[in-house]
Amino acid sequence: MPRSARYSTTHQQLKEQALALFLEKGYEQTGIQEITERAGVAVGSFYRHFSCKEEIFVEIWDEYAANNIRQTLEKVSHIDNLKAFLDILMSENEKFAQDPITAALYSTQTSLISSHRVESFPQIAEWSMRYRIEIQRQILRHIPLQSEQEAVTQANIIHCLLNSYAMRYADRLQRFTYHARPFRQILYAMLQLDEDSEI
């Protein structure tokens, strides 16, 4: 049965106000009552939409991060050069890392997962798989001597490296340091690409 327009409006309003409060005060310091007051609804209304604060966070972060991956894949959909493809992935990861929402919420996502308060982010999982498949497809297309197993492994490694590259700003525990030029050179070297080649 389709949701009513009013239900959808309230649902979205709760998410918008929760996000605003998470950015202002932090996730742990934000209470459900504050969210409902900002949204102009009763506390009971919150529980018609979300079972707990973790659930609203999951929906906010899942939608935000998955949308970023989707937009990145759209930007590379017509790229016919492996180095240009990798450069765009790096650039988009950089933008994602520097977004204030990423900086504010990434550590919360990590904390909720590690403490088992949240089991998964389904949209992120789906779009991350598409992301890895696209990297694999590009490798096989431009480096045809690679085996399927090699391409899968390289795609997974590149995905992990790009995640780490992006999260160097947001991950308060790791504090990785990367520099763009040597990072790019390492990606090229892993795929045996010459910096000056046309591939």
Automatic annotation (TrEMBL):
Pfam families: TetR_N
Residue ranges flagged as DNA-binding region: 31-50
Keywords: DNA-binding
One function term, GO molecular function aspect: DNA binding
InterPro entries for this protein: Homeodomain-like_sf, HTH-type_Tx_Regulator, HTH_TetR
PANTHER family: ACREF/ENVCD OPERON REPRESSOR-RELATED, ACREF_ENVCD OPERON REPRESSOR-RELATED
Protein name: TetR family transcriptional regulator
Species for this entry: Holdemania massiliensis
